[in-house]
Amino acid sequence: MITKPFRPPSFVRPESSDNEPATKKRRISSDVHATAIPSYRKPLSSVENSNSSPVSSSNQNEQYYTVLWRKYTNKKNKTWDGDAILAVVGGYATLTDSNTGKEMGKTVCNRPLLPGSALSVAGKELEVDGVLKKEEYLSGRAFLNGGSAAVQEKPKHSGTGYKSLTAAVKGFSQQKVVAAKPKNLTRATDKKFFKTPLLSSTVMPRTNSSKPQPRHDPNQPNALVMKRPLSAPKGKEIVDVVVDPVLGKHLRDHQREGVKFLYECVMGMRCEGEGAIMADEMGLGKTLQTIALLWTLMKQNPIYGSPPVVGKALIVCPAGLIDNWRREFLKWLGNERIGVFVADGKNRKITNFTMGKAYNIMVVGYEMLRVVQDDLKKGKIDIVVADEGHRLKTANNKAMQAIQSLSTERRVILSGTPLQNDLGEFFTAIDFVNPGLLGQRSAFKRTFEAPILKSRQPEASESELEKGEARWQELVSLTSRFMIRRTADVLSKYLPPKTEQIVFCRPTVAQAAAYRSILSSPIFTAALGNTDMALQLINVLKKICNSPALLKSKTDTEDTPSEMLQSLLTLIPQNILNSNASSTKLRVLDSLVHRLYTTTEEKIVIVSNYTKTLDMIEKLLNSLSYTFLRLDGSTPANKRQPLVEKFNKTNKKTAFAFLLSAKSGGVGLNLIGASRIVLFDIDWNPATDLQAMARIHRDGQKLPCKIYRFLVQGGLDEKIFQRQIMKMGLANAVVDNKASASSFSKDELRDLFRLDERDTCQTHDLLQCPCDCMGSRVDNNEPIEISDSEDDDSGQDRYPTLKKASEVDMLEQESRIQARRTAKQPKLTLLMEYRHLDTKYVRSAKKGETNQAIESDAAGVSLDDDVLFEVLKEPDCRVGFVLTKSSS
Predict the structure, then answer these.
(1) How far apart, in whole angstroms, are the C-alpha atoms of residue 751 and residue 429?
(2) Residue 457 and residue 257: Cα distance in Å, rounded?
């Protein structure tokens, strides 16, 4: 190899007279230049630097840094490959990618680090960029979009660079062309000939004043004025945006707040995106708030003289709610003010909406959207509203992909249950309305989902609890900028009170025998290791909980029973399969509807997830000669609303009961003609049950509402209910900002297929609640106190079964008290909101026994339900335990 010849240095460092390298002379005395250059250097003061202190194994010396990293290379001009977070804890340094949250390596580190320090981790070169606060690391803020800047409060907009407003005024370029025309050239087409046929008296009359004039008077009483932007584009002025009094006068306080929140979100005033999630519970008027928002955006703009913010709006909803949206627009705005185009099987000419001027709103079902999405792309959609948006569960959802293909930045999700199963679905909803706000899905899972779920486990360590709490707080803080959530409590002053009863029904002897036969069969044991067969077994047990006779009927999805089911049927006696008499739920329902029909004028809704179960209930009502209506998947869409209206407007002699399929009519229906509702079976997804329960407690209801949820005590129903509580606790923690995420350990959930035939309620045992099971309220914040005095009569009244101190095993009692205190953590407070009632106290009253009569009366007061109380007093009543909660 030919190399260049050696070239000597071009300069030689001069040497001093004593053959030493020349160095800068130290001044040893002051002179005239002492004021400019100090004569000597003082020794550096010893200053303690927390960042440079040696790292120990103590958590008090945890240090976190932002670093630059790159792979080892021999290149002359080296560049950095990316950013990362370095956590030095316990003498070990862990490197985590700040974009994906993925751990990149780990090494021993027991030396101080300062900005500029270099080190090596897992084959990568690092350079410390800066020090990161522990709070920022725990919150996960540093992992969002590669740094904390993405989650800082949005700076105040100033000058002409206000992105959201310039994005809102999409017609500026066109407007400039019109303004550039000479004034002497006026075409007839530039004038607006069409005028709204109905002149609204709410619009302010035009004046010759040069001052910007809003469409509606902001000084009128109860005027709903939107937030003004801080700046306007150059040459433009800001004008007030006021909700049309035609709608504003009907809005309640929480609805006025909701409209203002949505307006600020879609105008980009609250966060980096222009999307919003309205997560109000059912019955709070999400539809009316959305109509008020759309009507305001279609008629006004905060930039004076600019076209309206929105020209065309698309509403995507379940097919069963299309007519509901059309009626709501007609109810609040009429036919004269706005045109609503409904895309259905008969009306598929989408150009009438995209190209025409007669329609500003289009309502389409999720399924139909996929069919017409190509036609919608030809037009311009300014805003998309996804009703029941929790259906957009995954990024691969075809409806979501269809909406995203429209390239519409303003997106609104309406959902009473935005978090149904896990945080992954919640991320999908957030990324849909504000893409990229939380980074990539994989990074979100590592940064937020995994730490939060790990901290909710009973065996979580202190560090995991601290980290999970910080990540949860940060997620709540982020989502609160574009998500608004109000519970049904805000309707307490508008609606009558409601009472929820969780009714635990003890299985009948025949039902328990059929349950045990299935569990003891070899087929059942072999199927536990097979996922598909396990799901079939779950369906089998759910049918037994409703009625063993349902096993003999064909399933809703199959023409013939499966081979496994046919094998299991041979284990159950034919007399049980041929009759519904063994169903404990049906017996309780029989007593309840009989008491209700004979002693009151109220009506009832009965909900089930299965059409075969509705068939069984229908036979019961026919045998009792009770009138009823039915809505399930076989009911045509054009006949559903007439059924609802007939039930609401007629008395109980015409329609006493309404049989409803939860999957076909669980959302969007207002069944206010009934004041009682029974959920005959339970669903794994708590949102399904919550939506069904909200059908009667809505605007227009005049009577106190009673909600019953039937469970088989000790069976699969109760285990599903426990899983629901866990999911609802997670939703409350993130969506409602409640620090009470319920969670059960894996050991407690392993008995999913076990039948608990004890007299006590397993759910109450899991709580380890210290209450007397007589319906008295339990204070979650009150510490458990055990009196040491043998003469404490109050303790005897509260705990009738207390023993004398001399008879008590103190070690056992202390361990039990400690377990109770452990259980009374915020994880289980969701169930502690209920009163707990063992029904034996209701049936214990006998003549001449005053104490038992008092106990029975106290239980009746806690129930707040005379009909159910009379049912519980029946000698052959199958109800073993009740959890009750009243809003009154």
Answers:
(1) 34
(2) 37
Amino acid at 501: Q
pLDDT tens readout for residues 262-319: 999 999 888 888 889 898 877 788 899 999 999 999 999 999 989 999 999 999 988 8
Q: Where are the extended beta strands (E) located within 702-753?
A: 705-712
**Phi and psi, residue 630, nearest 5°:** -140, 135
Cα angle, residue 739 at apex, residues 735 and 741 outer, rounded to 5°: 80
Dist. CA 192–CA 421, nearest whole Å? 52
pLDDT at 447: 82
Q: Which of 507, 517, 509, 508 is nearest to 571 (CA)?
A: 517
Dist CA 842 CA 852 (whole Å): 8
Specify the range with the lowest mean pLDDT, choosing from 135-149, 159-173, 707-721: 159-173
Q: Is the pLDDT of residue 30 over 60?
A: no
Angle separating helix axes 611-624 and 584-599, nearest 10 degrees: 40
Give residue 455's pLDDT band: very low, low, confident or very high (50, 70, 90): confident
Amino acid at 308: P
Could you give the 3-state DSSP secondary structure of residue 107?
Answer: strand
Q: What tokens does 663 get? A: 């999957």
- CA-nearest of 354, 346, 247, 366 to 299 is 247
CA distances from 166 to 267, 310, 645, 735, 832 (A): 10, 13, 46, 32, 51
Whether 338 and 295 have beta carbons less than 8 Å apart is answered as yes
Scanning the structure block, which residue is given the tokens 């300062």? 114
Q: Cβ–Cβ contacts within 10 Å for residue 556, how many?
A: 14
CA 360, CA 364: separation in Å to the nearest integer? 13
Q: Three-state SS for 623?
A: helix
- Amino acid identity of residue 255, one-letter, is Q
Start-to-end CA distance of the chain, whole Å, equals 94
Structure tokens at 78: 């080296």
| Residue 538, token pair as written in the block | 């779950």
Q: Tell which residue, 820, 807, 843, 813, has the closest CA to residue 771.
A: 820
> In the structure, what pLDDT confidence band is assigned to residue 450 with cuts at 50, 70 and 90?
confident
Tokens of 174: 């066109």
Tell me the pLDDT tens digit for each residue of 391-418.
776 656 788 888 888 888 899 989 877 6
How far apart are alpha carbons 395 and 388 in whole angstroms?
16
Name 416's Cβ contacts closer than 8 Å, sequence gap at least 6. Answer: 279, 280, 281, 282, 286, 687, 690, 691, 694
DSSP annotation string for 555-606: PSS-SS--HHHHHHHTTS-HHHHT-STT-HHHHHHHHHHHHHHHH-S--EEE
Does pTM surpass 0.70? Answer: no
**Residue ranges matching CATH 3.40.50.10810 in the chain:** 163-181+224-488
For the domain 163-181+224-488, what is the CATH superfamily, name and number? Tandem AAA-ATPase domain (3.40.50.10810)
For the chain, the residue count is: 888
